[in-house]
From TrEMBL:
Highest taxon of the lineage: Eukaryota
SUPFAM superfamilies noted in UniProt: NAD(P)-binding Rossmann-fold domains
GO cellular component: peroxisome
Protein EC: 1.3.1.124
Organism the protein comes from: Rubus argutus (Southern blackberry)
Reactions it catalyzes: a (2E,4Z)-dienoyl-CoA + NADPH + H(+) = a 4,5-saturated-(3E)-enoyl-CoA + NADP(+); a (2E,4E)-dienoyl-CoA + NADPH + H(+) = a 4,5-saturated-(3E)-enoyl-CoA + NADP(+)
Pfam families per record: adh_short_C2
Protein name (record): 2,4-dienoyl-CoA reductase [(3E)-enoyl-CoA-producing]
Entries under InterPro entries matching the protein: DECR2-like (IPR045017), NAD(P)-bd_dom_sf (IPR036291), SDR_fam (IPR002347)
Statement: the UniProt record of this protein carries the keyword Transferase: no
GO molecular function, one term: 2,4-dienoyl-CoA reductase (NADPH) activity
Coiled-coil portions: none
UniProt keyword terms in alphabetical order: NADP, Oxidoreductase
Length: 268
């Protein structure tokens, strides 16, 4: 689908996208690149990174892939530094890396709970922490007036409660709380905007194939207000809006992109 945004919306910007080699992260990488940004993607699997980078480069997008696990602070630090060394600046950090599986709470070991918090919540904070130096106004490669921006890919499942997702609900609640606190502290001190996107069910993603097999997918469509799954493109367009100058006064906000699903109820 054609983008409604101008092709130079992110011209000259450098974006680092964790989990940028697949799913929603890859679509954000692609759309940011198509709108003028240079792209660094971080992920754990070399093969996934290599094919994602080739796909971006074949579209004429300057792109590199850097292996790393957001759970390891040394990886986060190295990836952020390499991105800066390669492109000479860092403007946008997108935290799209996430871990998930369905497990009833009684069958979920504390280590399983901790693993998802480590990836989603601690991983997001660690990336923000390591990127701060480059994102803050006056940081390396930046002017004294303009800071960069951070975008977290969250969820809606912790707005209410979700079956077999206690670990992810807790993790994404922490991601959202972290986002608001950083928006306050770093927005005030460093001119960095920090926001979130909460996707609903998005077709053709690792999340959907893990969490909602085809049967569930079709039953979801029956009670969704817009009667359909979202596209990765829908998330990427919201990301583009928030990360570009169109979102320059938006800080500490979450855009829910779920077709109205989380607030929907059966008619009777
Ligand atoms: C119960 C499980 C489990 C399962 C893992 N564990 N899978 N418990 N049911 N299906 C437990 C393990 O038993 C172990 O605890 C602990 O979790 C760590 O497991 P490991 O396999 O050692 O972890 P690791 O290899 O680091 O893998 C992390 C992972 C994996 C999260 C488990 O799925 C992963 O790497 N995922 C990344 C990709 C991904 O999930 N993408 C989808 C994101 S979608 P014990 O006690 O046995 O040691 C998404 C959407 C969210 O995030 C919003 C939804 C609406």
């Amino acid at each position: 689908m054609e983008s409604p945004f101008k092709a130079d919306a992110l011209k000259g910007k450098v974006a680092l996208i964790t989990g940028g080699g697949s799913g929603i992260g890859f679509e954000i990488s692609t759309q940011f690149g198509k709108h003028g940004a240079s792209i660094a993607i971080m992920g754990r699997r070399k093969q996934v990174l290599d094919s994602a980078v080739s796909a971006l480069q074949s579209l004429g997008i300057p792109a590199i892939g850097i292996e790393g696990d957001v759970r390891k602070q040394e990886d986060a630090k190295r990836v952020v530094e390499l991105t800066f060394q390669y492109f000479g600046r860092l403007d946008i950090l997108v935290n799209a890396a996430a871990g998930n599986f369905l497990a009833p709470a009684e069958d979920l070991s504390p280590n399983g709970f901790r693993t998802v918090l480590d990836i989603d919540s601690v991983g997001t904070f660690t990336m923000c922490y390591e990127a701060l130096k480059y994102l803050k106004k006056g940081g390396p490669g930046r002017s004294s007036s303009g800071g960069g921006t951070i975008l977290n890919i969250s969820a809606t499942l912790h707005y209410t409660a979700s079956w077999y997702q206690v670990h992810v609900s807790a993790a994404k609640a922490a991601v959202d709380a972290t986002m608001r606190n950083l928006a306050l502290e770093w927005g005030t001190d460093y001119d960095i905007r920090v926001n979130g996107i909460a996707p609903g069910p998005i077709g053709d993603t690792p999340g959907m194939s893990k969490l909602a097999p085809k049967e569930i997918e079709s039953s979801v469509r029956e009670f969704m207000p817009l009667f359909k799954l979202g596209d990765k493109w829908d998330i990427a367009m919201a990301a583009l809006f928030l990360s570009s100058d169109a979102g320059k006064f938006i800080n500490g906000a979450i855009i829910v992109v779920d077709g109205g699903l989380w607030l929907s109820r059966p008619r009777h």
